[in-house]
Amino acid sequence: MKIIVSGGGTGGHIYPALSFINYLKTVEPDVSVLYIGTEKGLEAKIVPENGIDFKTIDIQGFKRSLSPENVRTVYKFIKSVSDAKKMIKDFKPDVVIGTGGYVAGPVIYAAAKLKIPTIVHEQNSIPGVTNKFLSRYATRVALAFQEAGSFFPSKKTVFTGNPRAQEVADLTDSSNVLGRYGLRTDKKTIVIFGGSRGALKINTAVVEALPELAKKNYQILYASGEIYYNDPEFLDIFTAFNLKENIKIVPYINNMVEVLNDANLILSRAGATTLAEITALGLPSILVPSPYVTADHQTKNAEALENAGAAIMIKNTELTGKRVVGAIDSLLLDDVRYRQMAESALREGVPDASNRLYRVLKDVLNGR
Ligand SMILES: CC(=O)N[C@H]1[C@@H](OP(=O)(O)OP(=O)(O)OC[C@H]2O[C@@H](n3ccc(=O)[nH]c3=O)[C@H](O)[C@@H]2O)O[C@H](CO)[C@@H](O)[C@@H]1O
After folding, report:
1. Whose CA is nearest to atom 39 of ligand 1?
2. Where in the cell is it found (predicted)?
């Protein structure tokens, strides 16, 4: 089997693609994969690191306001459709899968025009512009939230969940990952991060909370995001607190699948892929939705978990160091509440998402 995968910009679009590729390699050992991304997206780093063939096209997102940049974007779209067509004709895939982010636009569009079956995977409860546009051309639209179905042609949608959920749920050995970070295995661990790129508001609040957190009987693994780690506002503070026994601060957590398997609680943004991971594991969470995303979709993502009793949501504007410490304590010091939240989280998870997406792929290949 030969497949082309395209998706990117942020980790939330890339990791589901990688998880599905890893899964495919186990069920279709002779599969060959080409990944198409952009040079600027996080995929240019992550995909080659995972040993997957990687090619780029040059494309940018449309500005929502009337802007002369959009003329350039139209030109780039036309050029990148033509580049993607060449790559597709050379590689001859059986199917092309898009996991969102604007890079997937020209690739799926080009494949559809060449009459190659296509699947679009939508991670969010409110779809991004690219996937909405592509749903007219795609053979199937795979959903991670049922709610997203209303934005797409109903005959094309199928609920699969997010493949990253299955990857974290299927892990059997986390290889003492906390020990490798210099943390202990016999203490409760809170993992803190602000999505795949970090979040200034979370960093500011956590920095305010660090003096209190350093006194606690639990431990913290905290990823600030690559762009914030060396910021003069933070670096000295991070260096000083890294000397504390129960605190470890890094720019980015590369082995999140293992880390989540050994975590007790998460504090993070409410990106869809993160939520798929923590629900697959039944991990309670404190969610601070980013207000800077299309149609405020992270708030909808977080509300879905909060309403299910699976998470505590804190509004971005209300996040302070005190709230961080208070929310962590309220869960870790109350066993009954913690267990109930863990059970509720697990009920929301889709730990067989890759199996489901694979069935969709087979159907599409068989013309069903
Ligand atoms: C600002 C923005 O546009 N955010 C969107 C983006 O988020 P973004 O890429 O930040 O968010 P997600 O939460 O969906 O995914 C983050 C991924 O990065 C991983 N991770 C994170 C930090 C780290 O140190 N190491 C690491 O591996 C997480 O485990 C997860 O797999 O795509 C998501 C779609 O899927 C959307 O729901 C988000 O709204």
Report:
1. 271
2. Cell membrane
Ligand 1 pocket test: pick from 64, 229, 273, 293 the residue with the most ligand atoms within 8 Å of its Cβ: 273
Can you count the helices (H) and strands (E) in the chain?
16, 13
Distance in Å from the first CA to the final CA of the chain: 17
Measured distance CA(353)–CA(332) in Å, rounded: 29
Give domain 2-162+351-365's CATH number out of 3.40.630.30, 2.60.120.380, 3.90.1150.10, 3.40.50.2000: 3.40.50.2000
- Superfamily (CATH) of domain 171-347: Glycogen Phosphorylase B; (3.40.50.2000)
3-state DSSP assignment of residue 112: helix
Q: Is 298 annotated as a binding residue?
A: yes
In this chain, the answer to whether the domains covering 2-162+351-365 and 171-347 adopt an identical fold is yes
CA distance 226 to 267: 18
Determine which residue's CA is closest to atom 38 belonging to ligand 1: 271
Distance between CA 43 and CA 49 in Å, rounded?
Answer: 9
237 annotated as a binding-site residue = no
- Rounded CA-CA distance 168/183 in Å is 21
**pLDDT 10s digits, 324-354:** 999 999 999 999 999 999 999 999 999 999 9
CB atoms within 10 A of CB 360: 21
**Where does ligand 1 bind, in terms of residues with CB under 6 Å?**
10-13, 15, 123-124, 164, 193, 195-197, 223, 252-253, 256, 271-274, 277, 290, 293, 298
pLDDT digits 0-9 by tens, 31-71 = 999 999 999 999 999 999 999 999 999 998 877 777 888 88
For residue range 88-107, list pLDDT tens digits in order: 999 999 999 999 999 999 99
Q: What's the chain's average pLDDT?
A: 96
**Domain parsing of the chain, residue ranges:** 2-162+351-365, 171-347
Separation of 267 CA from ligand 1 center, angstroms? 13
Nearest ligand 1 atom to alpha carbon 164:
31
Mean pLDDT throughout 123-146? 94
195 is in an annotated binding site: no
